[in-house]
């Protein structure tokens, strides 16, 4: 009989302990106000987080579960974790080299390790997800996987591996014949896209025109047929294509070829924007990236002539943005951050408001719109049950002043874990 009592006691004790453990697994966040990203604003907000997902969003103290870990973030305001759809996170500047950023490249393992600095600076801006559009040596995939397994701290990454480019774009005569991503003609494009997909990329990136860094030309490179071949092969694998074009011709070809997004383009014709509206193609203007180069002219060694060209590009880029806003083209926020640009990921939002968006619309470009472009609109870009617990606390009201999002990020949660705390 004694043994039976002992057994009953042990069973009771086991259930008591496991029920306490189960309820203690939740974390509850409190905010003065919460912007869901799906059009609602909740005051006195309570968010319950279980594991890496949100299980409940409600208002008022009565919704705080028992035995939860409470993080009281009042009087701050919650916004969804932001998404930057155009970065180059493995572009790391080794300042000890004494060389300019573009010349200070290191071997891939060292770069991956040091690029954690870019990843942390990105989280500090409230960006919890990035689409990284162009790397080399598998560095982007390594970072993505290290972050996913918890071995590295950084944003959730969707990566594109080697960007496809034509011979003209990058070959330096006499230097090296190895040039990953190079493709000329439809057959080579098909082959290289398959190789990138086989390597494990999430996206295909194509350099559809000239132009990068101090070079602000925008001559189309790949033909529309080559671009379409890439889109068709990627689609077979359930993947999408992002096409870089500084000029209007590459942009038009990219849209007609079926790209999911066109990056950077200036001088875009109204007909092309109309086609983008019809097809649902995203425009990722990256207006701020040439502002960044001009501001950081000394680091890059850019002279007055280069800065003038950069500023001229920014002006034309902004005009295309204004037209896109007016024509209601789908827009997503991309910084095109490289090197010291990490930490400035969200400054693009200022251009969006300047071009005519409300702060709420600007916020959408880095939340719901970006999530739609990533084909993840049921788990990213909003604070709602079932979504990843990617949540940012800011000081002030982001709906009356977009600078609150850019300058006042105080606390960040990614996948249910606090990753930034500047309270
Ligand atoms: Zn880029």
TrEMBL record:
PANTHER family: ALPHA-D-RIBOSE 1-METHYLPHOSPHONATE 5-TRIPHOSPHATE DIPHOSPHATASE. InterPro entries: Amidohydro-rel, Metal-dep_hydrolase_composite, Metal_Hydrolase, Metallo-dep_Hydrolase, OTAase-like. Keywords: Signal. Residues 78-419 form the Amidohydrolase-related domain. It comes from Spirosoma linguale (strain ATCC 33905 / DSM 74 / LMG 10896 / Claus 1). Residues 1-24 form the signal peptide. The keyword Signal applies. This is Amidohydrolase. GO terms for molecular function: hydrolase activity, acting on carbon-nitrogen (but not peptide) bonds. The keyword Repressor does not apply.
């Amino acid at each position: 009989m004694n043994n039976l009592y002992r057994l009953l006691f042990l069973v009771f004790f086991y259930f008591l302990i496991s029920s306490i453990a189960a309820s203690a697994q939740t974390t509850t966040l409190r905010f003065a106000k919460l912007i869901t990203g799906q059009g609602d604003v909740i005051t006195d907000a309570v968010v319950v987080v279980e594991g890496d997902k949100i299980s409940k969003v409600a208002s008022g103290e009565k919704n705080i579960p028992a035995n939860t870990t409470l993080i009281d973030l009042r009087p701050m305001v919650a916004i969804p974790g932001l998404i930057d759809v155009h970065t180059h996170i493995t572009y790391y500047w080794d300042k000890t080299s004494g060389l300019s950023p573009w010349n200070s490249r290191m071997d891939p393992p060292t770069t991956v390790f040091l690029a954690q600095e870019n990843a942390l600076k990105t989280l500090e801006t409230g960006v919890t997800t990035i689409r990284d559009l162009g790397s080399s040596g598998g560095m982007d995939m390594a970072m993505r996987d290290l972050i996913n397994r918890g071995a590295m701290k950084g944003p959730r990454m969707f990566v594109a591996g080697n960007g496809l480019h034509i011979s003209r774009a990058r070959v330096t005569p006499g230097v090296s014949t190895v040039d990953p991503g190079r493709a000329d003609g439809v057959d080579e494009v098909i082959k290289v896209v398959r190789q990138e997909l086989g390597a494990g990329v999430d996206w295909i990136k194509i350099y559809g025109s000239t132009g990068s860094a101090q070079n602000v030309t925008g001559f189309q490179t790949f033909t529309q047929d080559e671009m379409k071949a890439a889109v068709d092969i990627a689609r077979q694998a359930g993947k999408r294509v992002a096409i870089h074009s500084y000029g209007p011709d590459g942009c038009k070809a990219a849209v007609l070829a079926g790209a999911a997004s066109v990056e950077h383009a200036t001088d875009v014709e109204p007909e092309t924007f109309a086609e983008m509206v019809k097809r649902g193609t995203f425009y990722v203007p990256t207006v701020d990236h040439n502002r960044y180069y001009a501001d950081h002219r000394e680091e890059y060694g850019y002279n007055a002539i280069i800065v003038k060209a950069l500023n001229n590009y920014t002006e034309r880029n902004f005009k295309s943005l204004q037209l896109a806003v007016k024509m209601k083209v789908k827009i997503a926020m991309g910084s095109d951050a490289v090197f010291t640009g990490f930490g400035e990921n969200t400054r693009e939002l200022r251009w969006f408001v300047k071009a005519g968006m409300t702060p709420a619309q600007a916020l959408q470009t880095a939340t719901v719109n970006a999530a739609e472009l990533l084909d993840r609109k049921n788990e990213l870009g909003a604070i709602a049950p079932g979504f990843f617990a990617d949540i940012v606390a800011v000081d002030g009201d982001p709906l009356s002043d977009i600078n609150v999002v850019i300058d006042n990020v105080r606390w960040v949660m990614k996948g249910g874990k606090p990753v930034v705390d500047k309270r």
